[in-house]
């Protein structure tokens, strides 16, 4: 749906070029190779928020036609970053509507002169709706704030004497009942209380709707005949690893493909030709999760070489894809990786930090991964939207198992279960699977979090989304995350694994830690009894202000968070012997939310503060996770030696 088409966008959306561009082609991560170059556009961009009442001045005055500074004042805005918390302007922090980004780029001469080179602009994430122009020409539109999109800009940059290009990106953060996540714009028309035209953005999810260019923006090249997509699935036959590959090519009908698989030492272990096939790897090294094997996260490299005939003569393209050989399966009561029971002991995260908001940052990412490994966490859920591709790559490399969640959060309005929303949800799942299908770390798709799926249309809605996701990727189980209150959840019959959130002794019976064990046991028995499917405790936790102490424990103190966790753990320890296959704490770190009387500068259920310092519960969880790793180990000696080697083993 394009802004402007639906009434709900109201005054905020312009009337533009119709719907978003249809999905097209593959979405391979841009990697350098002998045939491909990259140019990163991170840094300071020109920026302006359109504060006009209609929010449409930028379109009326065609700000994309000329350098942005010529149509008014601009700010320097870092990319990647959310724009909200960078400045001192309260109005910009809570701005709803269109903001404009611009960057002039000098191109290598070859890119603008060699007609056999294809130049592609890739935007990692622009939240929420984006329109892109290059040198004033419209090149792309995209709906959805958490997945990448691209535009082939070769013709534009190769058509004139210019060796530079001006990239303009307009981004609208308005959420409607049909966006993912949904939201509504509420106009306050009582002029005795609100100024004329006053509105607010209302959402039903618990994190701040940060906006801007959140992830890297870059230009990259390929030859005009190029490897467009690669799909890999893996299996095992005894000790032989099976790598099924499929490669699609664009720009030529006459081509040859050669593939080879290299091990971590660079030795070729299997070779093939053609657009699809199966490689067999005798005595394969499997991709194992962190703490499950002495050499977790083993990655091969699938090298694909294209030789094509084009109008201009022969052309070659090379692409190397990291591949982990592993299997995933689900039984009535177990989650199996490589045929062994896997227990998720991990966290739920957010992309969130001081100042940068949801902006990607390497230092933050490494700190988070170092903390995950310190904690002994083997997994996380990308609550409540897909994370940056660089995060997923690190999960592959470190063996951190991922439940990959789409932005289906806060779906509670009946209008959000209609066909418009459904079609968009299906499209988002398609974009997500296309982007993340080759990551061995991704073991399950989550299509939503706590939708109001006890409403009648929700049953059909989720049946359709789950079935579609299984068609897109038959190799992984699918879940969505329900809530212990949603006993009549109409979506659960369709999932492979039941993920359930509960906040006993926090949102109910608050202060009464003594009822947790009974209520939690009842929850597990009810869900398993009804469906006989493995269950994951996908959220539990307590709001905790770092430095608040009270014993006996009272709510919001570090002691209360610890005690609540301990009550949960005692039931989890019984049920994991039966059918509970995981526990994910809410949350890894404190994070920003909307302002409400329930939130003191954001959600404080982190076991780390927003600055990534441990609360007391982090140490409790660390002890538990390392103990679980040792109990569910593949070989006892393995975990020990691995962790000693990394100076991580805490005992
Ligand atoms: C939930 C939601 C999560 C919230 C959390 C809470 O059930 O899934 O987004 O942040 O509860 O802390 O209330």
UniProtKB/TrEMBL annotation:
The gene is GUSB. It catalyses: a beta-D-glucuronoside + H2O = D-glucuronate + an alcohol. Keywords: Glycoprotein, Glycosidase, Hydrolase, Lysosome, Signal. Its EC number is 3.2.1.31. Belongs to the glycosyl hydrolase 2 family. This is Beta-glucuronidase. The keyword Hydrolase applies. It comes from Prolemur simus (Greater bamboo lemur). One of its GO terms (molecular function) is signaling receptor binding. It holds the Pfam family Glyco_hydro_2_C. GO terms for biological process: aorta development; articular cartilage development; autophagy; bone resorption; carbohydrate metabolic process; cell population proliferation; chondrocyte hypertrophy; chondroitin sulfate proteoglycan catabolic process. Homotetramer. Inhibited by L-aspartic acid. It is found in: Lysosome. Residues 328-629 form the Glycoside hydrolase family 2 catalytic domain.
């Amino acid at each position: 749906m394009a802004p402007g088409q639906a009434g709900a966008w109201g005054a905020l959306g312009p009337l533009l070029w119709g719907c978003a561009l249809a999905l097209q082609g593959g979405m391979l991560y841009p990697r350098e190779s002998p045939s491909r170059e990259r140019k990163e556009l991170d840094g300071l961009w020109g920026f302006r928020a359109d504060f006009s009442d209609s929010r449409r001045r930028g379109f009326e005055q065609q700000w994309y036609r000329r350098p942005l500074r010529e149509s008014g004042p601009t700010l320097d805005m870092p990319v990647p970053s959310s724009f909200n918390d960078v400045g001192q302007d309260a109005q910009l922090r809570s701005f709803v509507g269109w903001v404009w980004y611009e960057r002039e780029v000098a191109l290598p001469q070859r890119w603008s002169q060699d007609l056999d080179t294809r130049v592609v602009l890739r935007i990692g994430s622009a939240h929420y709706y984006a329109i892109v122009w290059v040198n004033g020409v419209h090149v792309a539109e995209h709906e959805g704030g958490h997945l990448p999109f691209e535009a082939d800009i070769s013709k534009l940059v190769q058509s004139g004497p210019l060796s530079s290009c001006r990239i303009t990106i307009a981004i609208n953060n308005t959420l409607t009942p049909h966006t993912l996540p949904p939201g509504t714009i509420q106009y306050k028309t009582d002029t005795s209380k609100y100024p004329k035209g006053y509105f607010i953005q209302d959402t039903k999810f618990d994190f701040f709707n940060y906006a801007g260019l959140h992830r890297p923006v870059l230009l990259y090249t390929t030859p005009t005949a190029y490897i467009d997509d690669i799909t890999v699935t893996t299996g095992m036959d005894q000790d032989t690893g099976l790598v099924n590959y499929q490669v699609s090519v664009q720009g030529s009908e006459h081509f040859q493909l050669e593939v080879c698989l290299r091990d971590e030492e660079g030795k070729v272990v299997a070779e093939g030709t053609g657009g699809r096939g199966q490689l067999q790897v005798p005595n394969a090294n499997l991709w194992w999760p962190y703490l499950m094997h002495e050499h977790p996260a083993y990655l091969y490299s699938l090298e694909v070489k294209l030789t094509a005939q084009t109008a201009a003569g022969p052309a070659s393209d090379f692409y190397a894809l990291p591949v982990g050989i592993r299997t995933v399966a689900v039984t009535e009561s177990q989650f199996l990786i490589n045929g062994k029971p896997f227990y998720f002991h991990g966290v739920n995260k957010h992309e969130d930090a001081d100042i940068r908001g949801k902006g990607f940052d390497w230092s933050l990412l490494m700190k988070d991964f170092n903390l995950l490994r310190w904690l002994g966490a083997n997994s996380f859920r990308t609550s409540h939207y897909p994370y940056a591709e660089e995060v997923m790559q690190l999960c592959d490399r470190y063996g951190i198992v991922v439940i990959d969640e789409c932005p289906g959060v806060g779906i509670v309005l009946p209008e959000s279960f209609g066909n418009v929303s459904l079609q968009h949800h299906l499209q988002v799942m398609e974009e997500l699977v296309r982007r993340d299908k080759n990551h061995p770390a991704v073991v399950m798709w989550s299509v939503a979090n706590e939708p109001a799926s006890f409403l009648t249309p929700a049953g059909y809605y989720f049946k359709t989304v789950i079935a579609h996701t299984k068609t897109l990727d038959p190799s992984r189980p699918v879940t969505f995350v329900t809530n212990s209150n949603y006993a009549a959840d109409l979506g659960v019959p369709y999932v492979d694994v039941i993920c359930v959130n509960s906040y006993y002794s926090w949102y109910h019976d608050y202060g009464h830690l003594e009822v947790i064990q009974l209520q939690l046991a009842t929850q597990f028995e009810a869900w398993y009894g009804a469906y006989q499917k493995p269950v994951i405790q996908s959220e539990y936790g307590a709001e905790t202000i770092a430095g608040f102490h009270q014993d006996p424990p009272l709510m919001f103190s570090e002691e209360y968070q610890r005690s609540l966790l301990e009550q949960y753990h005692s039931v989890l320890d019984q049920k994991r012997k039966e059918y509970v296959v995981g526990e994910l704490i809410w949350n890894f770190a404190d994070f920003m939310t909307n302002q409400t009387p329930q939130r003191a500068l954001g959600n404080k259920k982190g076991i780390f503060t927003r600055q990534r310092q441990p609360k007391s519960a982090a140490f409790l969880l660390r002890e538990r996770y390392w103990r679980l790793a040792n109990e569910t180990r593949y070989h006892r000696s393995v975990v020990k030696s691995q962790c000693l080697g990394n100076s991580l083993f805490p005992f």
